[in-house]
Amino acid sequence: MEDHKWELLMKYQDFDYIVEGTFKTVNQHLSLAINHLKNQEENQGKLKIMFEVSQTAPSNLQKVIPDHETSEVGNEKLTAFINELGTRIEWLYALGVSYFLSEKLGEKLISAKSIKTMYNQAGIQLPKNIHLCINQCVRKKFLEPIGKSEKQKTYFITESGKAFIEKQIVSDNENKKVELYESAEQKKLVESFMRQLTEKDRKMLNATVEMEQRIILFMYLLKKHGMKGPVRPNIMYILMVKLYGYDGLIRSVHLGLSRTRPLTKKLKLFNKVHYTLTDEGTQWIETLHGNITKTT
């Protein structure tokens, strides 16, 4: 960027001039103009600036131009919106925040930096790698790159991304009406399991953070306490609720469970999906928790 020669036409109401030089040079004049506008106390309405570019627009730019007026939204509304997502899956949170930026705040150009800012405002723990979350959304065609802005890779949320989030919110509202247990037998199994948990079992559960790891540990402990047959995905959801206070979607737990393969195996019994822990999964959880799993 610094190697290019830039030309900037600055036109105020009472004075205009041309600046030529490096990007740093012209950017200084842009910054000066913007700060000058911001400091005008008599400006009660919108602060207006016109920018003319002597090239064609970036690809897909028309898709991200705001098509409606937006207003400032308080942090409490952001938090309420995030809670409506009903999930703890990191990439889905990132997509939800992107939706909020785009559709609620009118900030159509989305970056890792802007997503992180929203996470902090909503009091959400940042993922280990926000760029990985964004890349997952791009692979799913829910976010699409458009270029760079302020030295940040910039994206916009696609129509399929918007539809996915809107469906997620509807599903969460419907999910709150669903009965926790699928049967009296399932309730009895869960209650028996909860009673059998030892202090060391709970120590392992408390040391486990990721949803997928928790699910594998549930299956390991179920097997350890004599429940060796394949289990329904709903049991993983119930244990997430009982042991971790999970308040997200059942479907989100199902998605987490599907990502545990090949450490788990998907089966169909009595025309219903079940999962069982594989030998590889048993070895993995014992390695993860060391000698704790080898004693009761």
Q: Can you walk me through this structure?
A:
- The protein has about 300 residues and is α+β, with helices and mostly antiparallel strands.
- It has three domains: about 5-55, no CATH class; about 75-175, Winged helix-like DNA-binding domain superfamily/Winged helix DNA-binding domain (Arc Repressor Mutant, subunit A, Orthogonal Bundle); about 185-295, Arc Repressor Mutant, subunit A.
- Helix content is about 50%, strand content about 10%.
- The chain is built from twelve helices and six strands.
- The strands form three sheets. It has a two-stranded antiparallel ribbon. Strands 3-4 form a two-stranded antiparallel sheet. The chain has a two-stranded antiparallel ribbon with strand order 5-6.
- α3 (about 90-105) packs across α5 and α10 crosses α11.
- The longest helix is centred in the middle third of the chain and has 17 residues, at about 160-175.
- The model is unreliable at about 70 and about 290-295 (pLDDT under 50).
Précis, in short:
The protein is of the alpha+beta class and 296 residues long. The protein has helices at 23-38, 75-84, 90-104, 112-122, 130-139, 159-175, 184-196, 199-207, 211-224, 233-244, 250-258, 279-289; strands spanning 6-11, 16-21, 143-149, 152-157, 264-269, 272-277.
Oligomer: single chain
Helical element count?
Answer: 12
H-E string:
EEHHHHHEEHHHHHHEEH
Helix content: 40-55%
pLDDT under 50 segments (min length 5)?
68-72, 291-296
pLDDT averaged over residues: 80
Largest sheet: 2 strands, antiparallel
CATH C-level of the largest domain? Mainly Alpha
Radius of gyration: 26 Å
Structural class: alpha+beta
CATH architecture heading of the largest domain = Orthogonal Bundle
> Beta-strand level of the residues, as a percent range?
5-15%
Task: Order the strands across the largest sheet as they lie in space.
Answer: 1-2
